[in-house]
Design a protein that fits this description.
Length: about 250
């Protein structure tokens, strides 16, 4: 299916701090389609509030959204689900049991941490996930202070098996300019594997993709742009493991 991929968003209605109802979900998906997105993975938080939605609730809501999209006459988009997993000592067991969901039933897991996480704790978590048979994808990598301007850490984590995802707001004027330049440089040099909207609604955090795509196509060579926008997300959805002896940027 042609179009772009969004493997991180919070647009399933009523499950977390994202879309509140089906009306908002449908409106947001129309924005996503206008932005060129054709494949969406819904990733509600697994730890939102005091009563996170269970995996069955996520799958049920996914089917409801698919039916709603069809009723709206949108036939050129496809949808999957997973969770944005707040990593804890219980996360691996919860993944094994199906309590929380990997991306589209693959080995890839969208994982997040406190923004002030220590690097050693982050590396330990990545190692634990890989040892357990999973392929961790770091959600909104631009938020973690321990990684800022630390190419050595980013390279070490990549070798350990981590996939880096940054949000598309790194490419707009809202993102702090110094940080934006740093992460855009990482994109150009091939350290970032994926972009995603992390969309929550239609206004404050909409599913904007076109600006980021335009920047990547302008500043990255054709092969790298294709990897970031197409082949890397396809690899995840097909559950294909990257060659850990080389970076995806090579």
């Amino acid at each position: 299916m042609e179009g772009f991929y969004d493997l991180h968003c919070h647009l399933l209605p009523g499950l977390d701090d994202g879309a509140e109802n089906m009306t908002e979900t449908m409106a947001a998906l129309k924005i996503a389609r206008h932005e060129g997105i054709r494949t969406v993975v819904f990733t509600p938080h697994d730890s939102y509030g005091q009563a996170p939605a269970g995996s069955e609730a996520v799958r049920t809501r996914l089917e409801e959204v698919k039916a709603g999209v069809q009723a709206e006459g949108i036939m050129d988009m496809q949808f999957f689900c997973g969770n944005e997993v707040w990593y804890t000592p219980d996360s691996i067991e919860e993944l094994h049991s199906g309590k929380v969901l990997s991306i589209a039933r693959s080995r890839y897991v969208l994982v997040e941490f406190p923004v002030n996480v220590w690097y050693k704790k982050l590396f330990k978590a990545v190692s634990e996930l890989v040892f357990a048979g999973y392929c961790p994808v770091l959600a909104h990598a631009e938020r973690y202070g321990c990684l800022s301007r630390r190419i050595d850490y980013i390279e070490e984590l990549t070798r350990a098996g981590l996939t880096f995802q940054i949000n598309t707001d790194c490419f707009n004027s809202i993102f702090p300019e110094a940080d934006g330049r740093w992460y855009r440089t990482l994109v150009k040099e091939g350290y970032i594997h994926l972009i995603a909207t992390d969309a929550h609604d239609c206004k404050k955090r909409p599913p904007e993709m076109a600006r980021a795509v335009k920047w990547i196509k302008k500043h990255c060579d054709r092969e790298l742009a294709y990897k970031i926008l197409y082949s890397n997300p396809e690899r995840i959805l097909m559950d294909r493991t990257q060659d850990r002896d080389t970076k995806w940027r090579k």
